[in-house]
Amino acid sequence: MPTEPRGAFEVAELRAGYGKTLILDGVSLAVPAGGRLALLGRNGVGKTTTLATLVGQTNRHGGSIRLDGVELGAMSSSARAAAGLGYVPQTRDIFKSLTVEENLVTGLKGRSRSALEEAYELFPRLGERRRNGGGELSGGEQQMLSVARALLGKPTVLLLDEPLEGLAPVICDTLMAALSRLDMTILLVEQQVDRALDFADRVVFLDRGRVVHAGPAAQAKADSALLERHLGVALAA
Ligand SMILES: Nc1ncnc2c1ncn2[C@@H]1O[C@H](COP(=O)(O)OP(=O)(O)O)[C@@H](O)[C@H]1O
Ligand SMILES: [Mg+2]
């Protein structure tokens, strides 16, 4: 029997912030199962707050978050993870005092240790470094570890917050190539606009906690006026 595609993600009218301060003022977006959405915008517009709200780390004042039709909004962060949300935060929250392998084990969520081979297959570098401490890793290796750990939980939707930040171009290539091989729904926040638009099917631009544009990624990439307006950058031709 063919399995149903999983990972259809629908966010409607999200209003959220920190304490009483409202940052997101009605953010809506939808990613079909297996789709890839880039979430872009200038610094401070609410991209990280959006992802943090999806995983239950801010105060949500309203709106809905549905994964395959199931409402996640009232669930705890850990229940959302169990329901299929994987999160790679901007801060790369790996444990520096644990080894690479021990870090990965924290992502197993009850799966057997043999699943660790999936991580080493995706990022052979992590296999070579499995006995090294998290604090001994380069920035690129830490990011690979952070991504690999999130994937071990077998998410159906992966949320990535600026995975390329501070990484050398060759490491960005490696990371994007690995992400391109993943078969799941992906929501990517990234400042490297050209790479993000090449990766994604669709794009949503945020400004001051609101969606100001949504459309096909390829179309946005070809529209320098649009990019200039929402990001203040022009891509090289
Ligand atoms: N923990 C926090 N407490 C209060 N305000 C915050 C917090 N984190 C972010 N903000 C504010 O929320 C707004 C959006 O920030 P953020 O979501 O980090 O933007 P982006 O990721 O798009 O750069 C900014 O005005 C920022 O100062
Ligand atoms: Mg951010």
UniProtKB/TrEMBL annotation:
<protein>
    <submittedName>
        <fullName>ABC transporter ATP-binding protein</fullName>
    </submittedName>
</protein>
<keyword id="KW-0029">Amino-acid transport</keyword>
<dbReference type="InterPro" id="IPR017871">
    <property type="entry name" value="ABC_transporter-like_CS"/>
</dbReference>
<dbReference type="GO" id="GO:0016887">
    <property type="term" value="F:ATP hydrolysis activity"/>
</dbReference>
<dbReference type="InterPro" id="IPR052156">
    <property type="entry name" value="BCAA_Transport_ATP-bd_LivF"/>
</dbReference>
<feature type="domain" description="ABC transporter">
    <location>
        <begin position="9"/>
        <end position="233"/>
    </location>
</feature>
<dbReference type="InterPro" id="IPR003439">
    <property type="entry name" value="ABC_transporter-like_ATP-bd"/>
</dbReference>
<dbReference type="GO" id="GO:0015807">
    <property type="term" value="P:L-amino acid transport"/>
</dbReference>
<keyword id="KW-0547">Nucleotide-binding</keyword>
<keyword id="KW-0813">Transport</keyword>
<dbReference type="InterPro" id="IPR027417">
    <property type="entry name" value="P-loop_NTPase"/>
</dbReference>
<dbReference type="Pfam" id="PF00005">
    <property type="entry name" value="ABC_tran"/>
</dbReference>
<dbReference type="InterPro" id="IPR003593">
    <property type="entry name" value="AAA+_ATPase"/>
</dbReference>
<comment type="similarity">
    <text>Belongs to the ABC transporter superfamily.</text>
</comment>
<dbReference type="GO" id="GO:0005524">
    <property type="term" value="F:ATP binding"/>
</dbReference>
<keyword id="KW-0067">ATP-binding</keyword>
<dbReference type="GO" id="GO:0015658">
    <property type="term" value="F:branched-chain amino acid transmembrane transporter activity"/>
</dbReference>
